[in-house]
Amino acid sequence: MTVMTVDDVVAELRDGMTVGIGGWGSRRKPMALVRAVCRAGLRDLTVVSYGGPDVGLLVAAGCVRRVVTGFVSLDSIPLEPHFRQARQRGTIELTEYDEGMLYWGLLAAANRLPFLPIRAGLGSDVPRVNPDLRTVLSPYPDGSELIAMPAVTLDAALVHLNRADRRGNARYLGPDPYFDDLFCLAARRRYVSCERLVSTAELVDGGPPQGLLLNRMMVDGVVETPHGAHFTSCVPDYDRDEGFQREYATADWDRFRATYLDGDEEHYQKAVAAR
Amino acid sequence: MTRADVCVVACAEAWRGDGALLASPMGLIPRLGAQLAQLTFAPSLVLSDGEATLTYGDEVEGWLPYRAVFGVVAAGTRHVMMGASQIDRFGNQNISCVGDWSRPTRQLLGVRGAPGNTVNHTTSYWVPRHEPRVFVDHVDMVCGVGHDRGAVEIRVVVTNLAVLDFATPDRSMRLRSVHPGVSVAEVQAATGFPLTVPVEVPVTRSPTASESALIRDRLDPDGRREKEIR
After folding, report:
1. Cβ distance A118 to A125 under 8 Å?
2. In terms of CB atoms within 10 Å, which of A3, A81, A215, B222 comes out highest?
3. Of A79, A126, A177, which is closest to B115 when you measure between CB atoms?
């Protein structure tokens, strides 16, 4: 367990890896880590995500070969512009699952199971666009046919929580844990960025024990990145930056990248503050 | 009374008699409908704020993070009202993409939870603009499954023009009612497949005085509902 920088984390990632990203839509995304991946120019990643601007940024930066998801959305802006454009140009591959199937795939990986049965997907076109997907028959008297959702195993997981200690224990303070613990449990290497690195005593005193979502068995590296989820929401520390999100969604990509992404994280935060 | 008010009440009616289950409205008018139902004839209905908080009227009453929603889905104690970019006569729905899935002409949201919702619990749809490119012969990507593909129950499709249901022998789509001022022919012209039309088509009920007051004074005082159907 080590305290790291965003660049230390990216240095442990490789082209072609399968990377899971926590959060949901445009909520509590590890954006500082995502920006660092974009800067480093990693290629051919398979990105597993309840997709938001994390997917959009990585796609626009040319880091992505395949997206594994049930949706990609900016919440207040329903359609993610870069993901949308890449799909329409045919420049990325897609594994499209029902949201519950993706949950089950992470759960299977977290439990070291090859698959978990689920009803979601039956009768729909999800099996048509995922020809490797199989069904199983219940061995019990009901004999029902179910989708055998394969484990979604990750090379690395990137998540962002409100608070963490130096050992890798971490707490969320907002209303929803999303699936961040499962992303970590499904991954070989697990990296958590946080708004504030605090002492273990402060971490424990900072809320109810149920909010301690990650323990150090589930984490390999921790990074302090204040405003590291910007421009997604990270309540109660901050809400989504809707104005900046609109700018992201409408700006010319080359101009956006030159303004905000070509420098390091400190440069990004200064450029955001200077708007 | 406006067309949007009629639509809010028509959406509310979808949840009538549902008891203590999770109502999940997607879109403003379905949300107003679910809130109206909870405040009036369906007081047992459970509503969330769209994120992890359960609300009863103006009061917070519980916690339901996304992972727990999937438990409710699997248990079947939920009635969702989703949008539909395309829908066919058996209620198969598409919100993923238009055109060939491998390289769509229009990428939309993705399948979201529609496949799981429709095989686990009751589903209704809200279409703010009833037109032939939404009501199609075949959807490009089956997200929510229809009655010919194993749906539990597609209850109603509420649009800006009418309410449709599936009360036919083969559970295909039928015109249940037209909104005040809308003709049957108008609905048929806006539907890209042959619709079952009863001999007598009733008019969708109008809001009562107290429903109107709730919508206007409490649920949507800024009139945002008018913009959703334009």
Report:
1. no
2. A81
3. A126
What lies within 8 Å, CB to CB, of A108 at 6+ separation is A114, A115, A116, A149, A150, A151, A152
Identify whether the C-beta of residue A26 lies closer than 8 Å to the C-beta of residue A245: yes
Confirm or reject contact between A11 and chain B (CB < 8 A): no
Rounded average pLDDT over B203-214: 98
Q: Residue A230 corresponds to which tokens in the numbers above?
A: 């910007």
Residues of chain A neighbouring B116 (CB-CB closer than 8 A) = 98-101, 118-121
| A/B interface, count of CB pairs below 8 Å | 119
The domain limits of chain B are 3-227
Q: Would you mind telling me the total number of residues written for chain B in this entry? A: 230
Choose the closest CB to A119 out of B53, B67, B116: B116
Q: Write the CA distances from B55 to A66, A222, A252, integer angstroms.
A: 38, 35, 40
Specify which residues A134 forms β-bridges with.
A148
Interval B152-184: pLDDT, tens: 999 999 999 999 999 999 999 999 999 999 999
Comparing CB atoms, the residue among B107, B114, B143 nearest residue A87 is B107
- A75 close contact with B: CB closer than 8 A: no
**What's the count of helices (H) and strands (E) in chain A, helices before strands?**
11, 12
Tell me the pLDDT band of A71, cut-offs 50, 70 and 90. very high
- Measure the CA dihedral B67/B71/B76/B79, to 10°: -20
**Hey, is the C-beta of A117 within 8 angstroms of any chain B C-beta?**
no
Give SS3 for A220: coil
Distance, in Å, from the CA atom of A208 to the CA atom of A232, rounded to the nearest integer, reads 24
The 3-state DSSP class for residue A242 equals: helix
**What is the ipTM metric for this complex?**
0.96
Q: Quick one: pLDDT at residue A153? A: 98
Residue B125 CA to residue B159 CA, distance in Å, equals 8
Integer CA distances (angstroms), A93 to A156, B94, B131, in order: 19, 20, 32
Identify whether the C-beta of residue A100 lies closer than 8 Å to the C-beta of residue A124. no
Residue B206 DSSP code? P
* Strand partners of residue A9: none
- Cis, bond preceding A236 (omega within 30 deg of 0): yes
Per CATH, the number for B3-227 is 3.40.1080.10
Q: Is B112 in Cβ contact with A122 (below 8 Å)?
A: no
Nearest chain A CA: its distance from B201 CA (Å): 32
Mutation site for A-interface testing, chosen from B119, B140, B171 by largest number of A Cβ within 10 Å: B119
Cβ neighbourhood burial of A10 (10 Å; 0-12, 13-18, 19+): buried
- Cβ(A124)–Cβ(B141) below 8 Å: no
Which parts of B161-213 are beta strand (E)? 162-165, 174-178
